[in-house]
């Protein structure tokens, strides 16, 4: 009875999956995804969110505050009609959604947004938080009396 010995590689499937994802899946999708930068400026006096939204117009973008989160949405709808081609109409929709939890010190009433050359910059002013105050612990009256 003839037996074929095959060397078992437990990571072969993982290697194939990784190769498939990085050769066309994730890398291609990442190139199309808009980026979002979140940082503080002015010595932590402002919380800033920059969303890079190329090919979107200002009218395509909305910024909302919902239950302590900054919500950025963008949607572009294109419609093309060409009677010379066999299709009647070609449509495409591109959308972007990002929700970012605001810090407790956020002054929601003072939020400002500016859209310039495909970059949305939302500035959230931060209020000065009160520093924690240490309470001194004195000698206990009831514990001292019982001794």
Question: What brief labels describe this structure?
Answer:
147 residues, alpha+beta, Immunoglobulin-like, four-stranded antiparallel sheet, three-stranded antiparallel sheet, 7 strands, 18% helix, HSP20-like_chaperone, HSP20 family protein, A-crystallin/Hsp20_dom, Small_HSP
Note down, in words, how this protein is organized.
The chain starts with 11 loop residues before the first helix and ends with a helix. The longest helix has 21 residues, at 12-32. It is built from two helices and seven strands; from the N terminus they run H-E-E-E-E-E-E-E-H. Helices cover 18% and strands 39% of the residues. It has 147 residues and is an alpha+beta fold. Strands 1-2-7-6 form a four-stranded antiparallel β-sheet, with no helix packed on it. A three-stranded antiparallel β-sheet has the order 3-4-5, with no helix packed on it.
């Amino acid at each position: 009875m003839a037996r074929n010995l095959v060397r078992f590689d437990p990571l072969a499937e993982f290697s194939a999956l990784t190769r498939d994802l990085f050769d066309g899946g994730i890398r291609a999708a990442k190139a199309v995804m808009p980026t979002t930068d979140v940082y503080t400026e002015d010595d932590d006096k402002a919380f800033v969110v920059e969303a890079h939204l190329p090919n979107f117009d200002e009218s395509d973008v909305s910024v909302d505050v919902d239950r302590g989160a900054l919500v950025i949405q963008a949607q572009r709808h294109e419609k093309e009609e060409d009677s010379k081609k066999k299709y009647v109409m070609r449509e495409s929709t591109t959308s972007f959604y990002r929700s970012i939890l605001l810090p407790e010190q956020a002054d929601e009433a003072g939020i400002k947004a500016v859209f310039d050359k495909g970059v949305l910059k939302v500035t959230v002013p931060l209020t000065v938080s009160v520093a924690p105050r240490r309470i001194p612990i004195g000698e206990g009256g009831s514990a001292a009396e019982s001794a």
